[in-house]
Amino acid sequence: xxxxxxxxxxxxxxLDRISKHPQTTTDIxxxxxxxxRVPVMDVTFAxxxxxxxxxxxxxxxxxxxxxxSILSLADPVARMRRTIFDYIELVKPPWLSSxxxxxxxxxxxxxxxxxxxxxxxxxxxxxxxxxxxxxxxxSAKARGLRDDLKLRTGRVGERLxxxxxxxxxxxxxxxxxxxxxxxxxDVLSVVDATDLSRLRIEVxxxxxxxxxxxxxxxxxxxxxxxGQPYIFHLWVLxxxxxxxxxxxxxxxxxxxxxxxxxxxxxxxCIPFDRFP
Length: 276
What we know:
The protein is an alpha+beta fold. It has helices at residues 5-20, 25-31, 40-49, 65-72, 76-91, 103-109, 112-120, 129-169, 218-224, 249-252, and strands at 34-35, 38-39, 53-55, 61-63, 174-175, 187-190, 198-206, 213-217, 230-236, 243-248, 267-271. The strands form four sheets. Strands 5-6-7-9-10 form a five-stranded mixed β-sheet. Strands 1-2 form a two-stranded antiparallel ribbon. A two-stranded antiparallel ribbon has the order 3-4.
């Protein structure tokens, strides 16, 4: 399903009909071949997928709270904006993850039908408070998606480190990061099977072999240079077999900034390809 102005208006018209004369999907399909210029099957599919209607026990379509909310918006621009947001919530299109880069980036990559819908909703050039709030909400959603992907990728790397350390040392390492992010490292292992000195491991993972990068925080670096055994596990997860690069503190040090004056660094981004 790709949202277009025609599909949106067809949905509004059908919601209005259902609110006044409840009927089954079958009845609707028998009564209409199209609503406006859109096939009626596309419209009924849309209002169901968007959770604007549901079937009652006898099969009659009734409006959900979301459907009633859409219908209650008298302002056509506000209604279209809400429709676009509901659509994005449902479909989660691939371009959503880059929404934090701004609306220009989005409008360059969306389907023409959706771009036309955005234009009708005043979201291409609109600078009113509601339009700005729409893009801010979309940007927040994009950041959430990126953070979720980053977390899941990181957990895969940490689990691989746990398995590797168990095999390497014969000891069960501690998975510290699932309990707290304040320690400055992710896994607590030992130096080797004969040296049980505690080894702190910070795990970084990427699925992008060519352009992947990782962040080292000031807290992680403070732990790294504290004098206790500390290493970095850099996992590249692209391809069938994960690739591990074990990197020591001295190798990371040239890429870490220094504090000057009243300025304090908090995080540094380092490309994976600096450690072939």
